[in-house]
């Protein structure tokens, strides 16, 4: 079906869109190309009392086999990025974080080097307050624009974003992130490039990038590292269906043989139960598990 010129797909499998290459179908799926199309989608869903799920690259999501009941909005076509003053860039929510980091480099601006290898979107990075290698979204995000459930485009200043460890206000307020402004610093591009190269080398040498995955599955427990706990428990190589605890990095779960969303969830629960029994610790997921079994 179509909403204006925008196609809305029905019963659309999510696996081809997801970094895990796993996930059940969405009742409805659309990919708006403008903010007005996004607003019209929100209105369309609300008129039908449909739940709304907005994603960038589906890189931190586990969708169960039963899929998502409602409207899934993929923001990957909202991907423009611009330099709005000497030290500030504005990127739309669907812009790849890797691309944003490279554009910052092209403009001789430092502050996004940590995102040079993160396979996610700007919107997802803000939503989850993503970070790596000593950098994090809340260190550089200046303000964020979002479409709220009532259709209003609202700008949130930094002190309104309620950033925490893998947390932001958008996990509770129903807003769909449209764009983010990053406050960066002028720097020698050679030094920026060197830091990005170092981060990407560390990532490639330690992480199982040859298999589909969601990156780090668990948040860091206070005083511990999730990957080390999992490794010390002898869980590397453990499998449920086609999903395996990576033998290269214990904090990752990789899709090695046509695994599905339920396989991911089952393996997550197995790891959590084992660590709870052996170490008395509750591992909290960094990835979000969603949908129907």
UniProtKB/TrEMBL annotation:
Gene Ontology molecular function terms on file: FAD binding; UDP-N-acetylmuramate dehydrogenase activity
GO cellular component: cytosol
Major enzyme class: oxidoreductase
UniProt-annotated catalytic positions: 166, 216 (proton donor), 286
Location relative to the cell: Cytoplasm
Record's keyword annotation contains Cell cycle: yes
Keyword field contains Lipoprotein: no
Function noted in UniProt: Cell wall formation.
Name of this protein: UDP-N-acetylenolpyruvoylglucosamine reductase
Provenance organism: Convivina intestini
Catalysis performed (reactions): UDP-N-acetyl-alpha-D-muramate + NADP(+) = UDP-N-acetyl-3-O-(1-carboxyvinyl)-alpha-D-glucosamine + NADPH + H(+)
EC number annotated for this UniProt entry: 1.3.1.98
């Amino acid at each position: 079906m179509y909403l204006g010129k925008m196609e809305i797909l029905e019963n659309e499998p999510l696996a081809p869109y997801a970094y895990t290459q796993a996930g059940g179908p969405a009742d409805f799926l659309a990919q708006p190309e403008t903010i007005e199309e996004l607003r019209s989608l929100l209105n369309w869903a609300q008129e039908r009392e449909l739940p709304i799920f907005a994603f960038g690259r589906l890189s931190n999501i586990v969708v169960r086999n039963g899929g998502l009941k409602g409207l899934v909005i993929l923001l990957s076509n909202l991907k423009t990025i611009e330099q709005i003053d000497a030290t500030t860039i504005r990127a739309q929510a669907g812009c790849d974080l890797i691309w944003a980091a490279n554009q910052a480099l092209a403009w001789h601006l430092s502050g996004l080097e940590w995102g040079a290898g993160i396979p996610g979107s700007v919107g997802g990075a803000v939503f989850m307050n993503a970070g790596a290698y000593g950098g994090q979204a809340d260190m550089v995000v200046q303000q964020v624009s979002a479409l709220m459930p009532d259709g209003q485009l609202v700008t949130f200043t930094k002190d309104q974003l309620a950033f925490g460890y893998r947390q932001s206000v958008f996990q509770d307020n129903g807003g769909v992130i449209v764009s983010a402004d990053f406050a960066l610093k002028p720097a020698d591009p050679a030094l920026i490039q060197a830091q990005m190269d170092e981060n990407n080398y560390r990532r490639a040498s330690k992480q199982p990038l040859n298999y589909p995955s969601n990156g780090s599955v668990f948040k860091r427990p206070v005083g511990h590292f999730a990957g080390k706990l999992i490794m010390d428990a002898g869980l590397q190589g453990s499998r449920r269906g086609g999903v395996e605890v990576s033998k290269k990095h214990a904090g990752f779960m990789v899709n090695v043989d046509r695994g599905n969303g339920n396989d991911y969830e089952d393996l997550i629960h197995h790891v959590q139960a084992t660590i709870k029994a052996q170490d008395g610790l509750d591992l909290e997921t960094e990835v979000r598990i969603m949908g129907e079994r």
